[in-house]
Amino acid sequence: MAVTFDSTTLFRQVIEPENGSLAPDVARYIVDLDFPPTDHARYEVLAAKAQEGTLSPEEAQELDGFIHVDSLLVIMRLKAKRSLNR
């Protein structure tokens, strides 16, 4: 089951990244969230295979998961950075 753009849009509406309302310690924690190095490496492999057109359906689903979670992290980091800048 692929994650749709609508779920990211809904998450953005819930998080309200334009509203910098997080406590500073929470905001700093969120800014530091990231995938571990092994996941970064796996993403690079999947992205290269996608460019080559050699992804299996399971790998395509895995890559979609990485992209979706990264989109959610971007939204959360935006809110955190706005919170730290207020």
Helices and strands, with pairings:
Layout: H1 5-15, H2 24-32, H3 37-52, H4 57-85
Helix pairs in contact: 1-4, 2-4, 3-4
Protein architecture, described:
This protein has helices at residues 5-15, 24-32, 37-52, 57-85. By secondary structure, it is mainly alpha-helical. The protein has one domain. Helix 1 (5-15) runs parallel beside helix 4 (57-85) and helix 3 (37-52) crosses helix 4. The longest helix is centred in the last third of the chain and has 29 residues, at 57-85.
The number of helices is 4
Percent strand: under 5%
Helix content: over 70%
Helix-strand string: HHHH
Query: How many strands, which pairing sense, and closed or not: the largest β-sheet?
Result: none
Shape annotation: elongated
Structural class: mainly alpha
Concise account of the structure shown:
The protein has 86 residues and is mainly α.
Characteristics:
single chain, 86 residues, mainly alpha
